[in-house]
Write a structure and sequence with these properties.
single chain, about 200 residues, mainly alpha, Arc Repressor Mutant, subunit A, two-stranded antiparallel sheet, elongated
């Protein structure tokens, strides 16, 4: 069974197995230790196991060994195959070169923001702005703490920092527009627009 498309988690698993053979716990630990959990969801170990199963069924990874330690349950160590190495390079090229239409929650919520009153929207965006500010501070601290590392190892953190900074600026400007009365609407005005467009 071939995998035509890679997920961020599948890509990361292959990349880590390119580094060295690992068992699932070791994969999850390295993702967190190297800060890759900022861009890859490994919160649920079941998702990692499903991804490993899919990669194995596709022949992109294989079992290297199954070992048993007195302190731990049986652990299966995986390694990347030649097909896995080729697929990793293909997925990397595709993900880096081709923008993908993604459907994050925030733009979807913005498309229905007109259901709220301006004060309600301003309040919700104020909470988002505070959360973004905290995230931005964490990203800046991470970049500063890892400044001795080669830049290539921190590109995803750099990207997240820039995207978070841009979103923070935009959200702050939107809040300012709401609070200054430059962005207003009413049910009646929206209904009039809807009627006019029919």
């Amino acid at each position: 069974m071939a995998l035509d498309r890679g997920s961020p988690l599948a890509l990361t698993v292959l990349a880590l197995l390119q580094y060295q053979p690992l068992h699932p716990y070791g994969i999850q630990r390295l993702i967190k230790q190297w800060g890759k959990d900022q861009v890859v969801n490994v919160g649920q170990r079941a998702g990692l196991y499903r991804t490993i199963d899919r990669l194995g069924e596709a022949g992109l990874i294989r079992i290297r060994e199954t070992g048993r330690d007195q302190q731990y349950p049986e652990r299966t160590t995986y390694e990347i195959t030649d097909d896995g190495q080729a697929t990793l390079r293909k997925w990397l090229d595709e993900m880096l070169s081709t923008p993908k239409q993604e459907f994050p929650q925030f733009p979807a919520a913005l498309s229905s923001a007109l259901l709220l009153l301006p004060d309600e929207l301003s309040d919700a965006l104020g909470r988002r702005e505070r959360a973004l500010t905290e995230t931005l501070a964490r990203l800046e601290a991470s970049l500063a703490a890892d400044s001795e590392l080669p830049r290539i190892t921190m590109l995803e953190t750099e990207y997240l920092h820039e995207m978070t900074a841009a979103e923070t600026r935009w959200v702050r400007a939107l809040i300012d527009d709401l609070r200054a009365g430059r962005l207003t609407w009413s049910r009646e005005s929206l209904e009039a627009v809807a009627v006019a467009r029919e």
